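Journal club side-thread
Mid-discussion, someone asked how the predicted structure for our own chain would compare to the paper's figures. Pasting it here so we can look after the session.
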Amino acid sequence: MRETFIIMGRLRSLSIVIPAYNEEQRLPEALLLIAAYLETKELDFVEILAVDDGSRDGTAEVVREAAAADPRIRLLQNPGNRGKGYAVRHGMQKAQGEWVLFTDADLSAPIEDLDRLEEAVRRENADGAIGSRALDRKLVLKHQPALREWVGRLFNLAMRLVTGLPYRDTQCGFKLFRRDVAQCVAARQQCDGFGFDVEILFIARKHGYRIVEVPVRWANVEGTKVSLLKGLEAFLDPLRVRWNDLRGRYK
C-alpha cells in the first residue's frame, strides 16, 4: 500500500508554491497570511517557495526581505518571464515537502481552505485535490465579471468534451498533490502559460493518479494578469493537450 504521508488525518510535510509576476504589492500580505496559517498546523517540515517569473518590479526583493525574517520562505527565479505554467513547474520540481500546494499570490482561495483539500485527500485516499469554484457556487464570495464567468463555463464544457477530464473547474489556482505526483507531472508538462492546469490534470489521470475536486471559498481579486483575449486563446489548450498526448509527450 502506497504511503500517503498523512497520518491520522494530519498532513506532516508541505511545500507551498506561489507563482509570482509583478506581485510586489500583494505578495507581502500573502506571505504574512500564509505564515500565520502555518502556525495553526503541526507540520514536521514546511517551506514556502515564491517563484519570481521575471518580474519587472520589486517582487524578488520583497521575497528576500520576507525570507530574512522567516527561514521557511525561499525565493526561486525563472530565467525571464516564462509564464505561470513554467513558474508552477519550477516550484514543483524544487519542492522538498511530501505534499505540494500551489496557490495564487492574491490568495483568491484563502489559504485556510487547504484544510478542505487535506480532508478530501485523507477521506478519499487520493493522490491530490483541486479547489473548485463550480461545485458549490455559494462559496464564491465575490464573482468575476459576468462575461468572464460565462467564458469560463464554456471553456470547461469544451475542455471536458476534448480531454475527457471530469472536473467542473480546472482553472482555480489552488491545487494539492503528493510530491511524487507533482514531479511526475512536472517532468512531462509542455505548457508554460495559463493553459497548464488542464495539462497537468490530464497527465496525472493518464498515469493513474486519483485527483479529487473539492469546493473551496473564492473571491475575485482585481488586477488579474489574464486578459479576456488570453482567456479566449485558452480554448486551444485542450486541443494542444490532445495533440501532445498523440505525440507521446506524456508517456
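Post-session note: The longest strand covers residues 13-20.
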